């Protein structure tokens, strides 16, 4: 225990001047907070980022931005850690919990579920929230969005445009694709959301699917995307974290199209990214802090979708101009989902029957 206390004190002192190695390949940073009058908050939040780390222009960056906003609005302090491998998750969660200094400890992504559950069982009085997981974990609040809602509308765009040939770089092959980072159940629902969106307006379209096996390998993401474009795909949705940046590079190289995911990614390649399947991770993280500070935090799973405004699509910042008819159809379909008239398909086993019962053009 004496060694642990010395370690924590040393980490916090050094972190005041930036990053410090907590273990090989790991950095911890402390961000001091205070309101505009200089008052220092007594509340601190800790977050364990995913192995993709900051700079992924996606999941981790959005979560970090949510805490920066909480720092500005709520006068909190927050610490973050960037693990390099999944096996580090448990030690990082335990480090935060053992300190007893955190109002809330946040995790990100389904691959942290086992680690956060293990540590939460050891510290039942500590608040833990896991963002982007639908798992039901004892003592943990899990927050997730409906991935089928998030990607369905970009699927509708792809299905319409690959068939219509309105866009300069589209072809006549009637093939589109999805590149996945890892095959987690919640992300596979995102694949099915996109796929069922395509099939809803274009049931004869072929939807290619491949997995990078990593959220931080843009080189492999690009390689997979190039293969899909060479097989006839003209639109690819990525659900691959930083690996998805490789999809954008492939789209530019092959003069084809892509869809972003998470925060608006259209600015990354505005001539080639048609739209982004939006998910407001920053707001999800921010709201978890608010609930903890206001003593409204309750463990258990909670989800949201198009109706709650937590997901959607955005063409803002894209130079790819969609036809008025395409936008009209997408907005009609969006309203149908919000009103409960249409539910995207969730599993591959259900897809054929779903397509048979759900087609926009009857």
Please characterize this protein's 3D structure:
This protein has two domains: 2-145 and 281-304, Rossmann fold, CATH 3.40.50; 147-279 and 323-357, Response regulator (Rossmann fold, 3-Layer(aba) Sandwich). It has helices spanning 2-15, 59-74, 89-99, 113-122, 147-164, 185-201, 218-230, 244-254, 281-293, 324-338, 348-357, and strands at residues 20-23, 26-31, 44-48, 77-82, 104-108, 128-131, 140-145, 175-180, 206-211, 233-239, 257-262, 273-279, 300-304, 311-314. The longest helix is centred in the middle third of the chain and has 18 residues, at 147-164. The chain is globular, with a radius of gyration of 21 Å. The N and C termini lie far apart (69 Å). Helix content is 41%, strand content 21%. It has 362 residues and is α/β, with parallel strands linked by helices. The strands form two sheets. An eight-stranded mixed sheet has the order 1-2-4-3-5-6-7-13, with helices on both faces. A six-stranded mixed sheet has the order 9-8-10-11-12-14, with helices on both faces. Helix 5 runs parallel beside helix 6 and helix 7 packs across helix 8 (244-254).
């Amino acid at each position: 225990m004496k060694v642990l206390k010395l370690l924590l004190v040393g980490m916090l002192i050094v972190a005041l001047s930036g990053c410090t190695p907590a273990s090989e390949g790991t950095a911890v940073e402390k961000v001091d907070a205070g309101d505009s009058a200089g008052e220092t908050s007594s509340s601190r939040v800790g977050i364990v980022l995913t192995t993709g780390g900051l700079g992924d222009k996606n999941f981790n960056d959005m979560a970090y931005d949510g805490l920066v906003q909480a720092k500005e609005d709520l006068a909190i302090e927050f610490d973050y850690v960037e693990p390099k491998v999944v096996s580090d998750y448990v030690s990082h969660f335990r480090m935060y919990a053992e300190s007893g200094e955190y109002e809330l400890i946040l995790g990100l992504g389904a691959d942290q579920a086992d680690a956060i559950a293990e540590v939460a069982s050891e510290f039942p009085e500590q608040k833990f929230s896991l963002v982007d997981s639908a798992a039901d974990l004892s003592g943990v609040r899990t927050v997730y969005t409906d991935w089928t809602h998030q990607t369905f509308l970009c699927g509708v765009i792809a299905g319409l445009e690959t068939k219509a040939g309105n866009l300069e770089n589209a072809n006549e092959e009637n093939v589109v694709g999805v590149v996945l980072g890892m095959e987690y159940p919640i992300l596979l629902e995102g694949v099915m959301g996109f796929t069922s969106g395509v099939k809803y307006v274009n049931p004869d379209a072929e939807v290619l699917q491949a997995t990078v096996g990593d959220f931080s390998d843009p080189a492999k993401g690009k390689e997979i995307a190039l293969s899909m474009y060479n097989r006839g795909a003209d639109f690819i949705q990525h659900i691959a974290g930083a690996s998805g940046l490789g999809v954008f590079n492939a789209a530019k190289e092959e003069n084809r199209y892509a869809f972003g995911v998470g925060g608006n990614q259209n600015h990354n390649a505005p001539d080639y990214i048609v739209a982004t399947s939006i998910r407001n991770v920053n707001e999800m993280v921010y709201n978890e802090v608010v609930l903890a500070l206001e003593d409204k935090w309750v463990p258990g799973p909670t989800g949201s979708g198009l109706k709650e405004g937590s997901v959607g699509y955005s063409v803002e910042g894209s130079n790819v101009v969609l036809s008025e008819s395409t936008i009209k159809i997408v907005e009609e379909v969006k309203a149908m989902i919000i009103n409960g008239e249409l539910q995207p398909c969730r599993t591959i086993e259900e897809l054929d029957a779903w397509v048979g019962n759900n087609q926009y053009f009857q």
